[in-house]
């Protein structure tokens, strides 16, 4: 997992960070109006999937992260490799369509007071 740069947004089809040029990267970002203030944090538990269109098994990763005053996005630099996408027998890219699913399992906001 890694923290994305400001330019990245959700799905980076060219790859990002260690996945640059070799994998699709997926990130979860808080929007500007969802950003936290001092002594606030947002907890996110989400399941990211690239769906296998041949029903051979999805690629799945779980994201669990606290977003705070300096952390607005987090995700996976190497979610699915370009080699796996190019291999039509693997069933991820069919008719130039890649199916991505994000399931938010938990999201909450909390206030905390440093000691």
TrEMBL record:
Chain intervals for the UniProt region annotation (Disordered): 1-20
Location of the MATH domain: 1-104
PROSITE patterns (alphabetical): MATH
Pfam families, A to Z: MATH_2
Skewed-composition ranges (Polar residues): 1-12
SUPFAM superfamilies documented for this protein: TRAF domain-like
InterPro entries: MATH/TRAF_dom, TRAF-like
Protein name: MATH domain-containing protein
Native organism: Brassica rapa subsp. trilocularis
């Amino acid at each position: 997992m890694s923290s994305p740069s400001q330019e990245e947004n959700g799905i980076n089809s060219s790859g990002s960070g260690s996945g640059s040029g070799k994998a699709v990267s997926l990130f979860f970002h808080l929007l500007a109006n969802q950003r936290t203030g001092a002594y606030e944090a947002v907890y996110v538990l989400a399941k990211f999937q690239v769906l296998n269109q041949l029903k051979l098994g999805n690629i799945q990763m779980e994201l669990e992260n606290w977003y705070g005053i300096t952390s607005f996005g987090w995700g996976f630099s190497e979610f699915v490799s370009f080699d796996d996408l190019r291999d039509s027998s693997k069933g991820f890219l069919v008719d130039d369509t890649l199916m991505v699913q994000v399931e938010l399992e938990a999201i909450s906001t909390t206030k905390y007071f440093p000691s």
